[in-house]
Amino acid sequence: MSGQTLTDRIAAAQYTLTGSEVSRAVCKATTHEQTAPKKKHLEYLIQATQDSNVNVPQMADTLMERVGNASWVVVFKALITTHHLMVHGNERFVQFLASRNTLFNLSNFLDKTGSHGYDMSTFIRRYSRYLNEKAFAYRQMSFDFGRVKKGYADGAMRTMSVEKLLKGMPILQSQIDSLLDFEVHPKDLNNGVINACFLLLFKDLIKLYACYNDGIINLVLGVKVNI
Fold first, then answer.
1. Is 223 exposed, middle or buried (0-12, 13-18, 19+ CB in 10 A)?
2. Contact 123, 78 (CB under 8 A)
3. 74, 75, 101, 177: which has the fewest Cβ within 10 Å?
4. What's the sign of the alpha-carbon dihedral 10, 13, 19, 23?
């Protein structure tokens, strides 16, 4: 049985009537069902970011509208969908997010509809801070730490100038710190929504640590050369 609410169906139908398939897919990915956003909707949105005819700002604005929902489920799934597109979508999506003066302002978000809402609201506030930091890092560095080549002598952080490294390492450290601040425990991973978020964060952390390791190696080698 579908867990979509009448509100979900009405929202999707409204976008169908206006001819916005991308916005409809955003709504479908961010329903009130306590499950991860469906793969078919995420894949559709990823492909949409590759299409030069698709209005990326409109896609982002629709996601922001969903983030403004009162339900923790819808907000969490909108953040997960945004994160998924930042990682797997065309780079112009994250470029647009990084160009905005403000992204997610959820420091006071609280769903009071039950104890589960209270618990998940805490993670939503932490998650939004991380995504803000991820976009900020892109704005400062003009690249995504998670997307660059890592672990090789010709990797981005291995070949970066010392001057740029000294600028980039604190930014990378801040992004790692904001991710670790999510601070989830096994007992909290009790629904498909937060599990989907945790998986994305875990994969990001591996990539960020690889970048950090490359940066440290570059700095150490640079110091040795100068001694």
1. exposed
2. no
3. 101
4. positive
pTM > 0.85: yes
pLDDT in tens, 168-200: 999 999 999 999 999 999 999 999 999 999 999
6-225 has which fold? 1.25.40
User: Which distant-in-sequence residues (6+ apart) come within 8 Å of 211 by Cβ?
Assistant: 145, 146, 148, 150, 156, 157, 172
Joined tokens for residue 212:
């950090």
Where is 138: in which H helix or E strand?
helix 115-141
- What would the two tokens of residue 67 be? 């983030």
Report the distance separating Cα 66 and Cα 79, nearest Å.
9
As a whole number of angstroms, the longest Cα–Cα distance in the chain is: 69
What is the number of residues in the chain? 227
Beta strands in the chain (DSSP E): none
Query: For 188, which DSSP code?
Result: G
- What is the distance between the alpha carbons of residues 221 and 213, in angstroms, rounded to a whole number? 12
Q: Who's near 58: CB < 8 A, 6+ residues apart?
A: 20, 22, 23
